[in-house]
Design goal:
The protein is about 35% helix and about 25% strand. It has helices at about 20-35, 85-90, 120-140, 150-160, 185-195, 200-210, and strands spanning about 10-15, 55-65, 70-75, 100-110, 145-150, 165, 170-175, 175-185. It has one domain: 3-Layer(aba) Sandwich (Aminopeptidase). The chain has 6 helices and 8 strands. By secondary structure, it is α+β, with helices and mostly antiparallel strands. The chain is globular. The two termini are about 30 Å apart.
Length: about 210
């Protein structure tokens, strides 16, 4: 993907817990987790957990050519429920500033894997990184944390020029290896402004979109 000429193939919609958008998010997550073998069925209700609260936000990426095609989705956690990353890695060096962080979770795409430069899953991940950091900036947070596979970790750093920092060694978790990581809001913006300036207006628009109450 050429970030210098980025035009998103998606229209992003933000949703809150319990809304129609939330139900669409849960449905795509359930379908994806079922295909991957993480859950035995496509029951979306089984996926609701302690982090699905009124503070939680959900992002839905619809294909621009048809508003009815949900291509990707993600969940952003920030608020009183805490962050799930600390349940897996309780002693991370950022634990003391957890209230100044958000966490990007349940990032899924209808297209599995990251193979192929034009793969839709790459576009979903690209937009989710920008959406997560845009949310962090809109809410004056220091950064966003996540648990991702080594492949995703390397791809984000290749695409966004080393902005993602590992917080601990990889760990086997739920049928896969994950790396706890953080992207600092200020550092991310400096990298974008200095090295990918054509992308910054798109990112700035995402920041403004998160300031509108969902």
């Amino acid at each position: 993907m050429n970030t210098q000429e980025h035009v998103s193939p998606y229209t992003a919609v933000h949703a809150s817990f319990g809304s129609c958008g939330f139900l669409a998010h849960q449905g795509l997550v359930a379908d994806t987790y079922s295909r991957k073998g993480f859950i035995p069925s496509e029951s979306a209700s089984d996926l609701i957990d302690a982090y699905d609260t009124e503070d939680t936000k959900y992002g839905l990426l619809y294909a621009q050519d048809t508003a009815s095609t949900l291509t990707g989705t993600f969940r952003l956690i920030h608020g009183s429920a805490g962050l799930p990353i600390f349940g897996v890695f309780p002693h991370l060096p950022v634990a003391g500033i957890h209230a100044r962080l958000c966490e990007s979770t349940r990032v899924v795409s209808k297209k599995l894997g990251l193979a192929g430069r034009s793969n839709p899953a790459r576009h979903v991940l690209f937009d989710v990184v920008l959406q997560s950091l845009g949310y962090a900036r809109a809410y004056a947070l220091m950064g966003t944390v996540s648990l991702g596979s080594p492949i995703v970790f390397d791809w984000i750093n290749e695409t966004f020029l080393g902005c993602q920092r590992a917080l601990a060694s990889p760990l086997l978790y739920k049928n896969g290896v994950v790396i706890p990581s953080v992207i600092w809001t200020d550092e991310f913006e400096q990298i974008i402004q200095q090295h990918i300036p054509s992308l910054f207006p798109y990112y700035a628009g995402i920041v403004e979109s998160w300031k509108i109450k969902t």
